[in-house]
Design brief:
By secondary structure, this protein is α/β, with parallel strands linked by helices. It has 15 helices and 13 strands. The longest helix has 19 residues.
Length: 415
């Protein structure tokens, strides 16, 4: 297993130096625009053979423009032959399974198919009827352990511990957030059926989601109406007109057509790029994209879909297979459509935003997400703190704010 990364890239007069960091995760995207840019958080050592892999032939990803469109639209699990049947366990996984998880933030980003089997909801503590679930959703290049600091501190409050139970959602962050949101939606519903088939536990209908970074976008798609908004970025023709097999159609529908989950009453966004991040378009983002590897079957399956539906697809997308970084670019059609989705009027929303750490384009923010992108109209509260993106959800002020929101939620439930 690779343990560290150290190499330098010279581009446009700047030097990018990278170094290993056992807990880096999202720090992969932390940069400073100066004569030297620092890049931290990639738990890898790249030898000559792997460097060659970074510069793999563009033709392996440069499939047709229309393949890129369908690729992101469906985020289909049928892309991955090993998981085409969707056989990974649904519903809430045990605390023992959570404890046995190996760190996989890098594999989940660079080789999403390799970590599909680990996708799911995990219980931090055993299920306890009568306690309100709080679901924590990590961000790009991250994993459930990123919430350890918050959980350790917040659960020390006896009021929190007596009234709330915590679950974490793990997903491969190299996949599009639309696909991962569909997985989360399905797991949440399966969990409620599994835990409370007769709907006797009222606490399950007062759920709270807390999402950091891209995890906030997954959370947002749990409380919004898709209508035809996402689909229309792909095609102006009905889905019935498409020539696809039943499994592919099912995956397209689950990703692009949905309604708010009625049991979710509150969402907390922490450093969420509602309008994207310019870092995705920087040299750092370019390198990140080159490190994402898709299975050959993915490309072949989508080429087949495109060949059969060429006249039905829009052509205003990138020429290469989109990654999660592509989908976080400002102006991305799916991201713009996500911003237009109507939120369930019954859901309370809160924002925690970092500032004081400029992005590569010098805009203020947390170093990855600008203040403007993290800001969301219509929220119940907005908490601004000077913190970097990868530490924003670990900051003491953010943890206190989440605790305050949970106590506010508890008071509202008891009214």
């Amino acid at each position: 297993m690779w343990k560290s990364l150290s190499f330098k890239i010279h581009v446009q007069g700047y030097r990018i130096s990278t170094s290993g960091d056992a807990h880096g995760g999202a720090k992969f995207l932390m940069v400073r625009v100066a004569t030297r840019l620092d890049l931290r958080g990639v738990d890898r050592k790249i030898d000559d053979r792997k460097i060659t892999a970074i510069h793999f032939s563009v033709k392996h990803l440069s499939v047709t423009l229309l393949v890129a469109l369908v690729l992101f639209a469906t985020g289909c699990r049928t892309m991955y032959p090993d998981s085409a049947t969707g056989t990974y366990p649904r519903g809430l996984r045990s605390t023992e399974e959570l404890a046995s998880l190996k760190r996989a933030y890098w594999a989940g980003f660079s080789t999403p198919a390799a970590t599909e089997a680990r996708t799911g909801l995990y219980a931090v503590t055993p299920y306890y009827p009568g306690k309100i679930p709080v679901v924590l959703v990590h961000g790009l290049l991250s994993e459930p352990r990123t919430w350890d600091e918050m959980l350790n501190k917040i659960r020390n409050d006896p009021r929190i511990d007596a009234n709330f139970q915590f679950w974490v959602f793990m997903y491969p962050t190299g996949n599009s957030y639309v696909q991962s949101a569909a997985d989360l939606r399905e797991d949440l519903n399966e969990t409620l059926i599994q835990l409370d088939p007769y709907r006797n536990d009222a606490a399950l209908s007062h759920m709270v989601l807390v999402g950091h970074s891209m995890g906030g976008l997954l959370s947002k798609l749990q409380v919004t109406y898709s209508d035809q908004t996402l689909w229309q970025t792909i095609s102006d023709r009905p889905i019935d007109d498409f020539e696809v097999d039943m499994d592919t159609r099912t995956q397209m529908e689950r990703a692009l057509f949905f309604e708010p989950q009625p049991f979710i009453e509150r969402v907390v966004y922490i450093g969420t790029p509602h309008a994207g991040s310019t870092v995705s378009q920087s040299t750092i983002g370019w390198l990140g994209n080159k490190l994402v590897r898709f299975p050959r079957g993915l490309q072949e399956n989508y080429q087949h879909i495109v060949q059969n539906n060429l006249s039905l697809l829009r052509t205003d997308s990138a020429a290469s297979i989109p990654t999660s970084i592509d989908r976080l670019a400002p102006g991305d059609s799916i991201l713009l459509a996500t911003q237009q989705l109507q939120v369930n009027a019954q859901v309370k929303q809160h924002s925690i935003i970092g500032n004081g750490h400029p992005l590569p384009d010098e805009t203020d923010g947390d170093g990855v997400v600008s203040f403007a992108s993290a800001k969301l109209a219509g929220v119940e509260s907005e908490y601004v703190i000077q913190a970097e993106h990868s530490d924003l959800h670990k900051d003491e002020g953010s943890i206190y704010e989440v605790e305050r929101i949970l106590m506010e939620h508890l008071a509202a439930v008891r009214r």
